[in-house]
Amino acid sequence: MSVTNRLKGILKQILQPAPKRVTEFDYQTIPWIDKKEANIQQFSQQFAPGDSVPYDMAEKLEFWKQNGYVIFEQAIPTDWIDMLWGEVERVIDQHEKYDMQVRIDLPEYTQTPVLAVKDVPQSVLNGPYIKYMDFHNASVVGKKIMLHKHIVTFLEAVFNDRVVAMQSLLFKYGSQQPTHQDFAYVVSEIPSHLAAAWIALEDVQPDSGPLFYYPGSHTIRKFDFGNGIFFNNESTNDPNDFANYLDEACQSKGLQRETLLIKKGDLLIWHAALAHGGNPITNEHQTRKSYVCHYSSQNAYKHHRSEANKEPERYSYNNADVFKNPLLPQEEDIFQGGESL
Ligand SMILES: O=C(O)CCC(=O)C(=O)O
Fold first, then answer.
1. Per its UniProt record, what Pfam families does this chain match (predicted)?
2. Tens digit of pLDDT for each residue in 187-204?
3. Number of C-beta neighbours around residue 226 at 10 A
4. What does the pLDDT look like over 100-153, one tens digit per residue?
5. Strand order in 276-278's β-sheet?
6. Which domains does the chain show, CATH number per domain?
7. 183/191 Cα distance (integer angstroms)
8. How far apart are the CA of 6 and the centre of ligand 1, in A?
9. What pairs with residue 270 in β-bridges?
10. Best residue among 211, 246, 271 to mutate for probing ligand 1, ranked by most atoms within 8 Å of CB
11. Coil, helix or strand for 117?
């Protein structure tokens, strides 16, 4: 490259406006329920308690606005869960056949934390510090649990829009993850349009490293990673700084830390900004099988995160969507047992 062209390149970089540093969610686009003027009683009149809404929607939405989470007991049928877990065990047993990815948070995998299951020893896949990524893409029952009507009906009300599932994580053991808020890591086109469901695939035991969360923490001032509220390659603060900030901010606001000891089939849905994490595992043999799904709205998640310019292929259940994984078409719905449910 000539000196003139190189100088032109440098000048262009200098003169380009710096990307806007985001310090808070944009009030204009936050979900209606997060706005000061939200009228929950009026909004909820459209949901008459009955078969399709087996709870008092106004009560749940009021609780959500104040606490940033809701719990639904016995929401997911146990035979659905057993089918899903049977499929996970099949993948672990015959891992050499599968391309689906896992994230491994062990020191020896720091350089390559995300790998195909076929490239990971079975003993590692069967242990802690493993997250199965987007298992729902391989599994019909995984999709049906992800878009179960209990979850979808509630989130449709929260977003006042069609629900779109973004991704899933499946755990055999507790994550032991430091305190965080999901919006910093899972970013949709409107970052405040995000929520997650934590589905218990077995009764949670106190020594398994249960999930913890701070009710009411969804309204605390956002952490600055040095480049705004999202964590990425340009951030100068890291996830441990984030955790320290959140723990201190919650404590100074007098927010109590709760431990999630729910039963198989129960679920917790949390707000994009609820501070939460995984407690330490105190019995290394105790599993904590769980399925975490992240959601956005139709308005905020229009494309699969791996294929931003292409119209996604959709699967729809209960008036909500999840996209086909464009990177692993050969493994979409390989587990078909869920068709019969
Ligand atoms: O299940 C856990 O321990 C943590 C999961 C979590 O924090 C997440 O997926 O955002």
1. PhyH (PF05721)
2. 999 999 999 999 999 999
3. 13
4. 999 999 999 999 999 999 999 999 999 999 999 999 999 999 999 999 999 999
5. 258-259, 211-213, 276-278
6. 68-340 (2.60.120.620)
7. 6
8. 46
9. 69, 196
10. 211
11. helix
